[in-house]
Amino acid sequence: MKKFFYILLLAIFACSPDNEDAILEQQPTSSDTLESMNLESNLDTDNLLTVEYFEDPALLDPNYSNEWWQAFAYEDSFQVEETIKRAGNFSGRFEINSTDPKLSGGIRAEMTQRLDLVGEERWYGFSQYFPASYVSDSTPELAGQWHDQPDEGESAGRTPSNFIMIRNDRFIWYLSWDADEITYNNSPDRFMEIDLGPVPKDQWIDWVVHIKFAYDNTGILEVWKDGEKVIDRHNLPNSYNDTKLPYFKLGIYKWDWNGSSVNQKVMYWDEVRIGNENSNYEEVKPRGSEEIVPPESKINMMVNSYTVSCLGEMQGTCLLVQEGNMIGTENWENFYFSNSIEGFSYEPGFVYGLVVKKTEVENPPLGGSSIKYELVEIVSKEAQ
Hints:
Number of strands: 21
CATH class of the largest domain: Mainly Beta
Low-confidence stretches: 1-19, 28-38
Structural class: mainly beta
Helix content: under 10%
Order of helices and strands: HHEEEEEEEEEEEEEEEHEEEEEE
Largest sheet: 8 strands, antiparallel
Radius of gyration: 24 Å
Mean pLDDT: 82
CATH architecture of the largest domain: Sandwich
Number of helices: 3
């Protein structure tokens, strides 16, 4: 059976070059994992290892090597795009052509994650956009891959354990694994393809991927596409038995253009986040056009399960709330319903944990509050 897998994989999925590992050794190992990204100001970045919004013009410098190692054939292979974007001012535009020279065994426009940020368990979030001109036929290409690092004695051209493949205008998740210490001749124990539906055009597709890499039954693979969970594999293998862990590559890669009726592929990426094992769906998910909340105006708030009558600027009913250092204590302060939190519907009998945007109101009305509260997120809701 392994011989059959070997023949099929070698013929179709010889994705990785013999010299790719040597190239990757040249990557920097800077500890500056997060640039000063204003777009991240509405996130708790403690668990985020890398973010990329393609806002830094230095990305166009072929010698740029802070967060990513780049593989581009020409200057036009990668550009920052102003008209098509998911968040911020720009996105990353990746282009390959059938006439491009091969880089490390294939035609590619890719950016590779720094190897000092790999780990056993990671969270990934990113957005992809395919223009109407993007056509995929039976000769597939890769639109994101988790590339393994083979041990000594294994082929550097081994098929990645996980990647998003596009074939006949459909997303295919490709998955392979092998418990053997040495995987010979690119022939893993098992592999499978999971159809994730058609590739929509002229719109952003949001992905969240959670992987705990394992060659045994401790692996986790969860994938969300546009908020819908499309893969849910727990306690199952999902990678090779390697000493080193896989790294993430974004962009587009086509190893064989023979037989394709299309001579150019263009796709866009935006809102790329990589989180550590303590991260979660909410931290890495693409947010798109969500308003970016300045950090100084984003606060945590607890709301008690009952209300009280109160008298102050006016007589009425008050919520009982906690903010800042008050949270977790026995102290609650009155919060007028008339100063309610925009977007929040209170239901008695529940204690809420909220994230709210708190901003000063310019020229407030006579007798009105000078502070405006808006709901950002309901973190918890517990019955009392």
